[in-house]
Amino acid sequence: MVNSLPHPTTSAGRDGLAALLARPEQAVVALDFDGTLAEIVPDPEQARAHPGAVAALAALAPGVASVAVVTGRPAGVAVRYGGFAGVPGLERLVVLGHYGAERWDAVTGTVQAAAPHPGVTSVRAELPGFLDRAGAWPGVWIEEKGRAVAVHTRRATDPAAAFEALRGPLGDLATHHGLVLEPGRMVLELRPPGMDKGVALAEYVREVGAGSVLYAGDDLGDLPAFAAVEKLRSDGTPGLLVCSGSTEVPDLADRADLAVRGPADVVAFLTELAGAVREGA
Predict the structure, then answer these.
(1) Is the dihedral of CA 219, 104, 181, 165 positive or negative?
(2) Catalytic residue flag (residue 32)
(3) Alpha helices in the chain (DSSP H)
(4) Cα distance between the two ends of the chain
(5) Looking at residues 61-73, what average pLDDT do you find?
(6) Is 172 exposed, middle or buried (0-12, 13-18, 19+ CB in 10 A)?
(7) Which residues contact 52 (CB under 8 A, 6 or more apart)?
């Protein structure tokens, strides 16, 4: 089974995978949701985990220290769309939602959350009129994310042009309200500062006391998590970075130790990894 695992292309990645397989009980496996465990779809409310994702995670989780889903979505939404609740094998699953501002634990089945940022409330009220004044971009729409607000351009006639035209003005709007703008795959998210996947991942790895870490993602919002793993590696904790391949985000693939073609391949990799962990037990 180990021989069937994809081979990382970097020495740091090979060291990370070797450390995970040598001491899986000390490993944290962390994964983004959209684009990694679930396909990107035009309507984010229709996103669901790949049909094999839950089974792959349930097979892997008992053999490692922890499996965590790290997402910009509200934690409860990711749990519902992922089908993660009440699954045998995932009794210790953790979902870090809103870039770590929310946390769902399978042990309790509840969401813990920090206080909301007042700037999000202000932006939520202002954004519809702001977009009307920004120009005619049919198909651009607003997603309410609770602790953040996102503007999607994927349905626009020219998604890339709309994205670039709105990026600067939305960045100014975010700054005015004490927020930051997070660009993604044809989406521009306005959210509070100090919330990113790197902070969430690093804090969780420290909490668990992990001896190694694997992180898989697909978008610009995953770059801070990649940076967190790179920092952990420089401090002596081995790590493996996996890119769920996207031609839209080459920066992530360039920094990955291992690139796969999308959620189906992520699920296949997790399934093979679970088998390798079991064989080594």
Answers:
(1) positive
(2) yes
(3) 11-22, 53-60, 75-82, 118-134, 159-176, 197-208, 223-234, 250-255, 263-280
(4) 13
(5) 97
(6) exposed
(7) 264, 267, 268, 271
With a threshold of 0.85, does the pTM exceed it? no
Output phi, psi for 166, to 5 deg: -90, -15
Q: Are strands 141-144 and 180-183 parallel, antiparallel or unpaired?
A: unpaired
Q: Worst-scoring range by mean pLDDT, 117-126, 206-215, 224-233? A: 117-126
- The two three-digit tokens of residue 97, written as one number: 């939602």
Place of tokens 């600067």: 168
78-136 pLDDT, tens digit per residue, is 999 999 999 999 999 999 999 999 999 999 999 999 888 999 999 999 999 998 887 76
CA dihedral over 141, 266, 100, 106, signed as positive or negative: positive
| Residue 111, phi then psi, degrees to nearest 5 | -105, 130
Average pLDDT, the chain: 94
Residue 277, token pair as written in the block: 């962990």
Mention every residue, 6+ apart, whose C-beta is less than 8 A from residue 242.
214, 215, 216, 217, 256, 257, 258, 259, 260, 266, 269
How far is the CA of 110 from the CAs of 74, 83, 96, 119, 231, in angstroms? 12, 15, 12, 26, 31
Residue 151 backbone dihedrals phi, psi, to 5 degrees:
-115, 120
pLDDT, residue 97, reads 95
Q: What's the CA gap between 34 and 211, in Å, rounded?
A: 27
Considering 32, 34, 218, 222, which one is annotated as catalytic? Answer: 32
